[in-house]
């Protein structure tokens, strides 16, 4: 047996162990007020339309909930301005069962000492669900990705941080099908739009996925490049992150449960991945509802982290209970010369469907957030496992050690975003 396989078996948990730990963690009080709180870094976490502020204990990594603010609908994504202490908060009431009619981006000033939020100006009103947002490194433009119908818009950021009117593009752009993320490369001159596509259903054919690359100058998108192996069929990217030191882009492939790595040189993305790796501990046993989610690099480029998400259900005693799968963080070490990733750990999140996670700016902490509760069967017993924030300590070798799980009430809506942000001089390096 390979050392990698041994590692996975040692760090992963079986289904029975997983359920036992998850049930046990429910006995932990939801929020423990920490004695060693540091004001330098705080955690923000969304639950429906509320954005909660947590203080972070510097040594124990304990979380303590402080205050919250509310926007008109469920928070979709948040991005900090690179120089002004302002958070841009995208929201929408669109869901699988409702087309929605409340969409926008709200702005909040951030207190540099406490992290508390104060509304700034009037929200930007939109006519579609803003599933993802980002800001260019110069802090001059907000980019908004919409999923259905797919669209990518650019809004100028004024000198005070407020938003101007949408920039009209000089030429139409092709945004693919079901956009899920937009990022601006560190150069500030390349925009990458991740178009997931959709799996086939019993009534609809598969929608192809793609990665769209654009030149970006003064708010204008041009010279589109479309990366879609096999015409996008069987190609389902969700999120990406940039290697901090190498000209490489790492992409979480939602529909394939893979990490794929592409080169990015002079604004041109390679037409095919140079590395392909599974994110699963057991890729031979993929069950319904198993997909990969967000991806984040460590600041030093030594490790990259992805979230495996699973929420498939089956009927049991008239209830929909979890069918099994992997809800975990996949940890990859990254070769400093080639950028080749190697899976070194998968560790359970002790919750279900982790849609978002965040890394501490100093690299010593990782927090995952699951979107909703799940009914879990253990023998003839059915247990409700709460949605939760799960805290891990990041070791020197990049691997994670479980610290604590905090149950979160998601009655008002799912947890779609969380972020550990530096309040001090490190604000400019914050990412979401």
Describe what this molecule looks like in 3D.
- The protein has 432 residues and is mostly beta strands.
- It has one domain: 7 Propeller (Methylamine Dehydrogenase, Chain H).
- The chain contains 2 helices and 33 strands.
- It has helices spanning 3-11, 15-25; strands at residues 37-47, 50-57, 63-70, 74-80, 86-92, 103-110, 117-119, 124-126, 130-135, 141-147, 150-156, 179-184, 190-195, 210-217, 220-227, 237-242, 248-253, 258-265, 268-269, 275-278, 290-297, 303-310, 313-316, 319-322, 328-334, 341-348, 354-359, 365-370, 374-378, 381-385, 388-394, 400-407, 418-422.
- The strands form 9 sheets. Strands 4, 5, 6, 7 and 8 form a 5-stranded antiparallel sheet that branches. Strands 16, 17, 18, 19 and 20 form a 5-stranded antiparallel sheet that branches.
């Amino acid at each position: 047996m390979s050392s990698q396989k041994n590692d996975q078996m040692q760090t992963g948990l079986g289904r029975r162990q997983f359920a036992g730990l998850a049930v046990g963690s429910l006995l932990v009080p939801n929020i423990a007020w920490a004695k060693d709180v540091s004001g330098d870094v705080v955690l923000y976490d969304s639950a429906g339309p509320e954005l909660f502020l947590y203080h972070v204990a510097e040594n124990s990594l304990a979380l303590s909930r402080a205050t919250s603010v509310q926007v008109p609908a469920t928070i979709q994504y948040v991005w900090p301005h690179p120089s002004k202490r302002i958070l841009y908060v995208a929201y929408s009431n669109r869901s699988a069962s409702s087309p929605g009619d409340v969409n926008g981006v709200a702005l909040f000033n951030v207190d540099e000492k406490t992290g508390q939020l104060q509304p700034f100006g009037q929200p930007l009103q939109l006519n579609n669900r803003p599933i993802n947002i980002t800001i260019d490194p110069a802090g001059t433009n907000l980019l908004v990705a919409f999923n259905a119908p797919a669209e990518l818009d650019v809004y100028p950021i004024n000198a005070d941080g407020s938003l101007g009117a949408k920039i009209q593009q000089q030429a139409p752009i092709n945004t693919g099908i079901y956009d899920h993320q937009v990022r601006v490369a560190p150069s500030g001159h390349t925009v990458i739009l991740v178009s997931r596509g959709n799996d086939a259903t019993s009534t609809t054919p598969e929608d192809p996925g793609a990665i769209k690359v654009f030149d970006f100058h003064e708010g204008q998108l041009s010279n589109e490049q479309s990366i879609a192996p096999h015409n996008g069929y069987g190609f389902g990217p969700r999120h990406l992150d940039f290697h901090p030191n190498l000209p490489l882009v790492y992409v979480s492939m939602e529909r394939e449960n893979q990490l794929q790595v592409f080169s990015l040189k002079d604004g041109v993305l390679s037409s095919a991945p140079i590395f392909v790796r599974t994110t699963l501990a057991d890729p031979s046993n993929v069950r319904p509802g198993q997909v990969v989610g967000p991806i984040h690099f460590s600041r030093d480029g030594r490790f990259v982290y992805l979230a495996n998400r699973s929420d498939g259900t089956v009927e049991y005693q008239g209830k929909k209970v979890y069918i099994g799968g992997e809800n975990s963080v996949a940890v990859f070490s990254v070769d400093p010369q080639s950028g080749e990733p190697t899976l070194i750990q998968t560790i359970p999140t002790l919750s279900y469907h982790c849609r978002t996670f965040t890394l501490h700016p100093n690299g010593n902490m990782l927090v995952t957030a699951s979107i909703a509760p799940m009914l879990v069967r253990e023998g003839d017993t059915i247990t409700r496992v709460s949605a939760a924030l799960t805290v891990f300590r990041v070791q020197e070798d990049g691997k994670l050690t479980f610290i604590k799980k905090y149950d979160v009430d998601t009655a008002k809506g799912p947890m779609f975003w969380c972020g550990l942000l530096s309040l001090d001089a490190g604000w400019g390096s914050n990412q979401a």
